Each structure stands twice: as C-alpha cells, then as structure tokens.
Amino acid sequence: MKGRMLKEASYYLRMAAGMAQLQLTAMPPDPAAAIRDQFEHREERFLQMARHVLENRRNLYRRIFDVAHCSYADLEAGVVKNGLRETLARLLAAGVYVTHDEFRGQTPIVRDGKQIEWSAGDWTNPWGRGLMEFTTSGSTGRPLVTRIGVKSLMYRLAHEAIDVTEHNVRARARVVVGAILPSSWPIRRQLLWHRLGMSTDRWFALCGQGSSAAYRGMTAFLVAQLKLLGAQARYPEYLPPNDFSIAAKCLAQFRAEGRPAYVRGAVSLATRIAAVARERGFDISGTLFSVSGEPLTQAKRELMESTGSLVYPLYLSTEIGDLGYSCPAMNSGNCVHLCEDSVMLIPFRKKNMEFDSVFATNLLLWNPRILINVETDDTAVIERVTCDCGFQRAGFTMQARDIVSYGKITSQGMTVQATDLIQLLESDLPARFGGAPGDYQLAEIEGAAQTEMRLRVSPRTGVCTVEPVREFFLERIGKLYGGRLSQNVWQFTDGFHVVIEEPETTFTGKAHAIRHLSKF
User: Fold this and answer.
1) Distance linking the first and last C-alpha atoms of the chain
2) pTM value?
3) Which residues of 207-240 are buried (b: 16+ CB within 10 A; e: fewer)?
4) Domain presence at residue 19
5) How many domains would you assign to the chain?
6) What is the pLDDT of residues 242-263, one digit of tens each?
7) For residue 443, what is the domain's CATH number?
8) What residues make up the domain containing 433?
9) pLDDT (tens digit, 9 = 90+) per residue, 328-373?
C-alpha cells in the first residue's frame, strides 16, 4: 500500500511539474504559423520518425514491415510518388498495421505465423518526451505511459486558437463540466484557456464525495498551482448526486447577463444539464456545448438544441492527439474537420468485419509516440469537405462523420475497455449467479437525457433479485482500468441499472455481450 501511494504521489508531482512548465513557456507570436509549417513538412517529419524505428532490426515496426516485404526505401519512394494517404492505405492492405487490442497488449502480435515480442519503447518517440505523464492501459494488458512534452501541447494550442475564434469563445462565459482526478482533463482545459488569454468562470465536478480524499486534495493542489502561477482557474464545485440543476441555473444566469456560456464536457453530462434546464424553465438559449467522450447522437443533439443551445462535437485523444474539431457549419449529425496536419486517419475494413476501422498515423514530430497505422477503436466515414471557416482555410479539408467507438464503453465520457468487460460478462457473472456466456449483456441505452448502462440478465439464469448482481458487477468493474471512475459517475448520475430480460440479439441471432448505442 505504501509503495502504491508513493508511486501515485510521484505520478501527480510529475504532472504538476509538466503543467507548470507549460504554463511558464513563452507563447509563439503566431500559432497559425505552426500549422502552416507542419503542413509543409509533415511528410518529411513522418519519414524521420519512420526511419528511426525501421532502422532498428528489433523494433516492432521493422519486423511488421519485413513481413510485408517493405523497406524504408520503399516507404519513402511511395510517399514521394503516391502521397501519404495512398501510401498508408497500401500499407494497410499489405498488413502493415497494429490492431487496437495488440496496441493495448490485450492480444499478442502475430505476423506470418510468428509472435512478435515488443516493449513500450517500440512506440516511444525520442523527439516527443515530456514530463506530463498519463497511464493508458487495460487491466489485462501491459501498462502504456504517455508522456506529453511541452512542444506537443503548445502545438495543440494552435488548434484551440482556431476553435476559439470560430465559436467566439472569448465573448462567452467559459464552463467546464467533468470529474476531478484521476480524470485530469478539466484541469488541463483551464490551463489551455489560460495560455490563450482566457479565464475559467466555473467548474462543475462530479464524484466529489465518491472520490478519495487524496484525489480531492491533489485536485485542489493542481488548481492552486495554476492560480499561483497566474491563471484565473476555478476550484471544482461538487454537484449533488444525480442533480445538475445548479449547473443549469448557472448557465441561465450567464444567459441573463448577456454572456451565454461555452461549455466543455462529455455528451451525456451536457445533455443532462440541458434536460434540467428544459424541465425547470431555465433560459439557457445561446449556450454553446462543446462535447466529446462519447457519440453525439441525434436524440442528444435535439434535446440540447430544444433549449435554444448550440452543439458541436470534438474528436480528441490523449494518446494520439487532436483528431478533429467542428466548425459552425457542422451543426447537424456527428461531424468534425480532421486535423491532418498532425494525424492522418485511414479507414480500412479488416477481415470478417462489417464496417471500416479507423487507423491513425502520427505526423507530428513532437507527439509522444510513433504511430503507423494503429487502430483507433473507432469507425467513421472519412471524406473531403468544403466550407468557409478557419479550419478549412488552415488546410483541414477532410472530415469524419458518423464517428462511433465499437470496442469500448464510453457512456457519459467514462471509458472502460470492451475486452476487460467480456471476462466479467461471460465468465465471472455466470460463475457467480448461474447461466452461460450470452446470458448477460451490457447495453448502452438512450435515456431521456443521458446515455445509461443496462445490464440485462436472462431469465434462464434463475436470478430473481437484481440487487446482488448490481453490487457484484459494480464491485468488479471498479477493479478495471477506468472502472473506478466509471463506477463513481454511473452511481452519481443513476445511470446504471440491472434488469431481468433476454439480451438483445442481432438479425442473425447473435447475442453480443456488449451492445453499443449505435448499431452497424
């Protein structure tokens, strides 16, 4: 226990040092110039990173390229002749990619009948090391640590600067809705706003009473550091369990003051705030919800828009970087401009799949990892777009729409890997309560104002009382990576229920252990 506490303390101290470094680094005079420079040099920077891994015979990428009979010289020639997108697509067809489960260490990497041993160092980018550290791994996989450097974070400010201009964020009150540590994005969000010359007006936080005193204390410490170094940051204001009325009333107050808010948060949490505002007659018209963390469904969009609010999705990843931002013209569906200055996304249909997977390749030299055709665990339609906005003028001429995650549960912005849940649903629950694989199904359900989790238990199991099943499931899920935070949020929002009913099946009769909100 003592060793774990020391490890966590070291982890958050490094995070604090990284945030201080970012806060004190001088801002570039023209952030847009960084994007222009990156577009001009993205191919050569990609090849620089590719050469680094392919010249090492023991590196994972070198061994995958060898199986495909592709050398660095072949790669360079392909980029020069056919361009980056076409070259990456040809590599995918030749088998040069890493699946999401392989990247997570959930399944072995096997090529040409031989298992390829690898280490976390195979992904490490020597030009992208930094102090701000985030652990990203499934509980059954090996740990993957993302150490983000200041150069990478400063570059992302260029994307944020376009978003601020396009959505007139400076003229709005700025509100964050999100959990405290171990979720760190609300604190980083306040730091990025500060670097762009803006303050944070309110932070509404979840899980204040459900989180440990250590997390609450470290959260307060990081905010205090931001304030000490000059940021107009806000400490978290803990919402009562399953009650978003305080946040809704605050947005109405900002509206009455003539300064409608710009709200960053998960899709379901934003929807809950809008639902409360509609139910209680709070006027939050003109509020702009900038949402991420889970699919923005049409039902959630319509609910938020029914209050007179605007809704725009974001497509972001700590591991990969900024994937996409929506402009004011993207006011329907689930659509973003792709940030192809720094990341290129290629759709590819793997064998026995019913839809395209999206594979990501890093083009930014300061990204913490070298990624070449790594599966993102998402599916999307990727196509060219034409509109008159700052993103288009900056060179973001491709868009992704109908973005859905198919390999993890992302309800209410919390993430639990599907591969971790399979063991619980198909082995642990049947062993404890009876039944067999296929008798338990975790489903994302479109509730009245939020995405809810429903654990379906087949009557065949003989289960008559759901409460023991609920307690067992929540206790076990709390031990998974991402599970403790998900457990707290689902309990806070009353967003998890157990029911005795037959699991939903596909038209072919299959009963999947996990049924996502969007069906393919």
Assistant:
1) 45
2) 0.81
3) bbebbeeebbebbeebbebbeeeebebbebebbe
4) no
5) 1
6) 789 999 999 999 999 999 999 9
7) 3.30.300
8) 412-515
9) 999 888 899 999 999 999 999 887 676 789 999 999 999 999 999 9
